[in-house]
């Protein structure tokens, strides 16, 4: 496997995607509630806030994906 193509292939594995989605939903929701609960409750949400909330879910997804791919690659090296 070439470096970038191999990394992306691992990142697209169904088990990696499922785990990253689960982490993103849980952690992203917690972060949105911490950062935006006052605005959500008051109804004072603007267009930029919705975009920021959506991006809030991307961060844990990316971190989980990166971590899983690195762990898979490291396990492959030690075998």
SSE order and pairing:
Layout: H1 3-11, H2 14-42, H3 47-78
Helix pairs in contact: 2-3
Describe the model:
By secondary structure, the protein is an all-alpha fold. The protein has one domain. 89% of the residues lie in helices and 0% in strands.
Q: How many helices in DSSP terms? A: 3
What portion of residues is helical? Answer: over 70%
Mean pLDDT: 92
Portion in strands: under 5%
**Distance N terminus to C terminus?**
16 Å
Classify the oligomer. Answer: single chain
Q: Which outline best applies?
A: elongated
- Total number of strands: 0
Largest sheet: none
Q: What string, H for helix and E for strand, traces the elements in order? A: HHH
Cα-atom Rg, whole angstroms?
16 Å
Count of the separate structural domains = 1
Strand pairing plus helix content: what structural class? mainly alpha
| Unreliable stretches | none
Summarize the structure.
The protein has 79 residues and is mainly alpha-helical. It has one domain.
List keywords for this structure.
79 residues, mainly alpha, 3 helices, 89% helix, 0% strand
């Amino acid at each position: 496997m070439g470096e970038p193509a191999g990394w992306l292939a691992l990142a697209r594995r169904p088990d990696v995607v499922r785990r990253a989605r689960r982490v993103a939903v849980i952690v992203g929701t917690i972060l949105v509630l911490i950062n935006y609960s006052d605005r959500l409750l008051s109804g004072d949400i603007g267009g930029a806030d919705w975009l920021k909330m959506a991006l809030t879910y991307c961060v844990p997804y990316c971190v989980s994906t990166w971590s899983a791919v690195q762990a898979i690659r490291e396990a492959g090296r030690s075998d």
